[in-house]
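Quick log. Single chain, no ligands specified.
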Amino acid sequence: MTKLSGACSLAASENPLRPAPSTEALLFDSGGARTTRHSRSYRLSSATPDCRLCERPRRNGTTTLFAAIELAEGRLIAECMPRHRHQEWLRFLKKIDAETPAELDLHLIMDNDATHKHPKVKAWLKRHPRFHVHFIPTSSSWLNLIERWFREITEKCIRRGVFQNVPQLIETIMAYVADHNRDPRSFVWTAQADDILAKVARARAVLDKTPSV
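-> predicted structure:
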């Protein structure tokens, strides 16, 4: 309950962090994307003696997109990396550190993945006290507004694309990020924690009344 309320209030439009000149809230997540190639093969149909041509997609490489969206203005900080380990997370934290004004305190909202809690990550954060980490509750990634942007890039850029290799995929992703940052916009969280919990309670009540099969 406390974590839910905190996450909602931190991302809400009336969030007190929003007008503060010395703070910046960043919402972080990472996601994988893969290239595809279409291989052509011939197979005999049992109904007719002729050959039929079919195409099927195959995985041809992957990349992991690390992205953080600045809450007030909607600017993105993003980078594609080959893997998702604490090493890559540290590299991205250093990128955030380099690309934000040094005088700002940074509040990062993220899920509680083990990568984010690695001892080397904790040691780095301890040496950089302007970073304040806020973990959302387990199994509630939907609370993080960056998920809305990930859905957008997936639907508008990645899912419909055909990428022959990883560099082409990365180029497309980063072009989309650059286009977003030319006219950045943020996503405003309007739901209240109490409203969310009430909706969950109603759904649970219906579920409890549903007979099991």
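The beta strands are 23-44, 51-70, 76-81, 105-110, 131-135.
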